[in-house]
Structures are given as C-alpha cells and as structure tokens.
Amino acid sequence: MNAVTRDALEHGASRAAAPPRGLAAILRSLTWREFGYFLLVALLISAINATSYFELAAKGHAPMKLLTGMVLPVLVVPFCVVGWLLADRGDDALLPRMPRMILCAAGAALLSALLLPHVVALMGLQFNSEVHFDGEPKHIPDWLMQASFGLDVSFFIGLSYAVLEMSGRRRRAELAVAAEQREQAALARRLLESRLAAMQAQVEPQFLFDALVDIERLYARDASAAAGNLDRLIQYLRVALPRLRESGSSIQAEVELVESYLAVVQALHDGRPALAKWIEREAAYRTFYPMLLLPLIQRAVRRDADLPPTIDLEVAHRDGGVHIVVRVAAGGLCAGNGELERVRERLHGLYGGRAQLVCTEPDAGTTVFTLRLPA
C-alpha cells in the first residue's frame, strides 16, 4: 500500500490526504452526513425531553419548560458540529487526535452551557423556573442549572463523538482491508503473468529442436522443401517471440500463433493435422491472454505417431460470453496430464471464477476443449 493510500485511510475516507487548513476551510468540509447525524441525535433528545415534561405540563407546572426542553437540543447542534469538525479535521502535529477530541467536546459543552441560556431568554423561552418540593416553590440558582445543563450536553456530545469516531475507524479499517486485498490480487496477477512469460519463453524447445533436425535431414533430399519448412519455422518464431514482451493479446492474435505453429507441424507431417477455423468477427479482437489456447493445440499434436487428421477451431458469442471451441479428431486428451490443470489455474488467476476450461470426449475418437470466457 502506498503512502498516499495509508494517509487517506488514516484520516478518513471523507477527507483528503492532508487536513483542511484554516477555520473557514474546516467549516466548509462539513458533510451532509455529519450534519444529519447531529441533527438526528438532537431530535431524539428533544423527543425524550418532551415525554418527561408532558407530565409536568399536564399538572400545570412550568409549561414553558416543555418547549424549552424541545428547542435546546436543536440549538446545541451548531456547537456540536463545530467541535466535531475541529476535533476531526485538526492537525495531529499540534495536538494528538484523542486529546483534541476530548478538548473539543468539553469546549462545545462549555460554550453551550454559557451561551444558550441567553439565547433561550432572547427567544422568550424559560431556561430556569421554579420547582415544587412538598408543595412549596423553590428557585434553583442559575449557575446550578447551567452546570447541570453543561453536564447533560457533555454526556451526549461525548457519546455522539464516540459513535462517529468508532464508525470512522471501522470504515477506515474496512478500506484498509479492501486496499490490501486489491494489492494482493494485483501481486497475484503480476506473479501469474510472470509465470506466463516464463512459459512463453520456453517456446517448446523440444518442438524447435525436432523441427530443425527434420529440416536438416530434408535438405539432403529436397533443398527446396527444406527451405520452405525453414521459412514456416521462422514465421512461427516471428509470431511467437514478440509474445515474450506482452502481458495481453487478442483472440485473433492467438489464433494466428496457432496457425503458424500448425504450419510447421503440417510441413513436417505431410499436412497433418488440417486446421478448419470459424471466428465470429465481433469476438476476433476481444482482449485475450497468451498461452491459453496454444497449449491445447500442442497437447493435441504432441504424439507424433498418432497425429489427429483434423482440428476444428470455433470462436463465437454464447451464453452471455465468448466460447473458444477446439475439436480434435483424437481421443484420450482429457485425462492424465497436468497441463490442462495449469491452463485452468491461469484462467482462474486472470478471470477469477468467471472463466473455465471444459474438456469432453463425445466419442472415442473426438476430444473437445471449450474455453468459456466472460463477456
């Protein structure tokens, strides 16, 4: 994970890598999600206060307290929001996050307790009122009411901040896990591609050696035919060798590689196996990966003593994806070899579970390889 990603995760998904500078920038960074959260908490507290004051209002005691108790939590919201923004967006270099969170919560509660009684009075509401003990009215000192109000606000602000902080930490942890998973997937893909490149680099050394030996022998009998076979081998290498530097290809390019490979095989084995192909135009230049199709062809022609007479190749859109079907006029190619499993492993690494290789033998003399690729 790079430094920018770590920094973004550390400071939260809703913030940039660096915290906002200046009070105006911090206030402008407020999100509707944060404002809605504090407003919802305030409305819930207003509803709770209303239920406790209904009984007093019904008895005729301090009816104005009902309205005050419903309005005050909403008036606290701006103090909560500003305190949260300063705590969340502040600079860790000046003050660590947790002490800053505690200081801002205490400051928001203190300012609310000091200023809101005067705001309530200007609105014509009653912050303090007489209470009745044993039928006698008692007046509670204003400072004691403010202290009690400040403690109540401190509790709810602290609880609100804690919920937001824990939610943010969980979100950052989820983002960190997702980033690690993406990085691991990218590493796995790069590893798979390097293994693919290593396989490409082999370019069938035994096949090349046998082809050169056969061409050398043919020169003694028919120099013209030998030169033609050598040209075909060179053409195959011209097509195959650039794949060593490529991590991606297309279906058409891989079919051309198969054709150049089979041209050499056919020249050395009296035209066997004959290749018949049908490629749907829309699928021809679809992105594909090297060394997924050629290994199937190589598996079909590797037995020199029993080469199949024909190989049919079909590429078409089917079932919401692309199917590459290789029909070989030879049986017994589905079992007893780890090469198919290696192709399946590469398919899984490149496409996940969205692609598969299926090998079937509909009769004793036919093998069908089907590569099913996602759309």
Query: In total, how many beta strands?
Result: 9
Series of H and E elements: HHHHHEEHHHEHEHEHEEHEE
Compute the CA-based radius of gyration.
38 Å
Number of helices: 12
Provide an overview of this structure.
This protein has 12 helices and 9 strands. The protein is α+β, with helices and mostly antiparallel strands. The protein folds into 2 domains: 3-189, no CATH class; 203-373, Histidine kinase-like ATPase, C-terminal domain (Heat Shock Protein 90, 2-Layer Sandwich). The strands form 3 sheets. A 5-stranded mixed β-sheet has the order 4-6-7-9-8. Strands 1-2 form a two-stranded antiparallel ribbon. It is rod-shaped, with a radius of gyration of 38 Å. The chain starts with a helix and ends with a strand. The relative contact order is 0.06.
Task: Break the fold down into its secondary structure elements and pairings.
Elements: H1 3-11, H2 23-28, H3 32-58, H4 64-89, H5 97-122, E1 130-133, E2 136-139, H6 142-202, H7 205-221, H8 223-240, E3 249-250, H9 251-268, E4 274-279, H10 281-284, E5 287-288, H11 294-301, E6 310-318, E7 321-328, H12 339-351, E8 356-363, E9 366-373
Parallel strand pairs: 4-6
Antiparallel strand pairs: 1-2, 3-5, 6-7, 7-9, 8-9
Helix pairs in contact: 1-6, 3-4, 4-5, 5-6, 7-8, 8-9
Considering the chains and any ligands shown, give keywords for the structure.
Heat Shock Protein 90; five-stranded mixed β-sheet; two-stranded antiparallel ribbon; 12 helices; 62% helix; disordered N terminus
